[in-house]
Amino acid sequence: MQEVFRLRESTKSVRESIDPTTGAITTPIYQTTAFLYPEGERYRYSREINPTVLELAKKIAELEGAEAGLAFSSGMGAISTSLLTLSRPGSKILVHVDMFGRSVRFVKDYLSSWGVKVSVAPADNESMIEMAKDKHDIVFVESITNPLVRVVDLEELGKTCKDLGSTLIVDSTFATPINQKPLEFGAKLVIHSASKFIAGHNDVITGLLAGDGNLVKAIDQMRRTLGTSLDPHPAFLVIRGMKTLKIRMDVINRNAMAIAEFLESHPKVQRVYYPGLKSHETHEVATRVLKGYGGVVSFEVRGGTEAAVKVMKSTSVIIPAQSLGGVNSLISHPPTMSHRTLSPEERKASGITDGLLRLSVGIEDVEDLVEDLDRALSKI
């Protein structure tokens, strides 16, 4: 299929390669371990390369405007494989304290024990950019942090990394290619836990990577060695989920904004974290670097862990669960769930309080979600 003009996001999300043998208009699931030894040696063994998985990799590259893409067995598989490929004993890596707990653990606990010099920036843009000026080989950030949705100033950070020759890697799970394209701000690689918004249905575990062709090629070789490869069936599910990514994110962006405004005015809520709100510390940055503010709204309730857990268990439409990014709204308590591996000191440094709840907004009717939250909050 020849591309003769610049395609927009919804079209990129929907379009697939036509199977050359059968003419199938959706990507087949090539559920096979090996392939008949072919001329040109393109396919041999599914851990290395599989046609279904390859189509998914092509699609994330197209959505991100990248030279190449890769698919992995999980988001952490994409992160660990990339960092293991690009770092060496003596390498300097900069991360920030308010990242996903497992990302912080991998860098601080594993890479540092391997001789990598790890610097951890505090949870503010100014400090992180200042630390980035002390050249690092790799700067690894989340474009929207988990769970306090602080928006990293990729515009300024990208300039700093480019000037110093640092490799900027961005976990853009919360933003998605619909709300932000980190490569446009100077990132060399963008990573997604595609289990979240990209697949969009809470039914698959997948990681994606897109970016500089030479870096992706090197990481691909490490992926084949480590075995962090994706099975073709989840690859098929992610391709299917991608087709509605743009329309889902349009609804999710609107729903999340309405819910954030509702929560900000609620007497039982102490504080709301959502970059679309003028009260958010990175609202100005968000207006510069995001096209939409995303589907995660975090908020603190008065009464600490007991009150937060009671709210979480009192919802009827919103599901208490640790994941995020699906069509169903999910609510979680980061201190005892997604960020439980962090020490109390690390959680405090990240701004995660005992009364914090993280809400992943879905595509339900927003009035139902607001009423559900109002009823749950009335229990405390």
UniProtKB/TrEMBL annotation:
<keyword id="KW-0456">Lyase</keyword>
<protein>
    <submittedName>
        <fullName>Cystathionine beta-lyase/cystathionine gamma-synthase</fullName>
    </submittedName>
</protein>
<dbReference type="GO" id="GO:0047804">
    <property type="term" value="F:cysteine-S-conjugate beta-lyase activity"/>
</dbReference>
<dbReference type="InterPro" id="IPR015424">
    <property type="entry name" value="PyrdxlP-dep_Trfase"/>
</dbReference>
<dbReference type="InterPro" id="IPR015422">
    <property type="entry name" value="PyrdxlP-dep_Trfase_small"/>
</dbReference>
<dbReference type="GO" id="GO:0030170">
    <property type="term" value="F:pyridoxal phosphate binding"/>
</dbReference>
<dbReference type="GO" id="GO:0019346">
    <property type="term" value="P:transsulfuration"/>
</dbReference>
<dbReference type="Pfam" id="PF01053">
    <property type="entry name" value="Cys_Met_Meta_PP"/>
</dbReference>
<dbReference type="InterPro" id="IPR015421">
    <property type="entry name" value="PyrdxlP-dep_Trfase_major"/>
</dbReference>
<dbReference type="GO" id="GO:0005737">
    <property type="term" value="C:cytoplasm"/>
</dbReference>
<dbReference type="GO" id="GO:0009086">
    <property type="term" value="P:methionine biosynthetic process"/>
</dbReference>
<keyword id="KW-0663">Pyridoxal phosphate</keyword>
<dbReference type="InterPro" id="IPR000277">
    <property type="entry name" value="Cys/Met-Metab_PyrdxlP-dep_enz"/>
</dbReference>
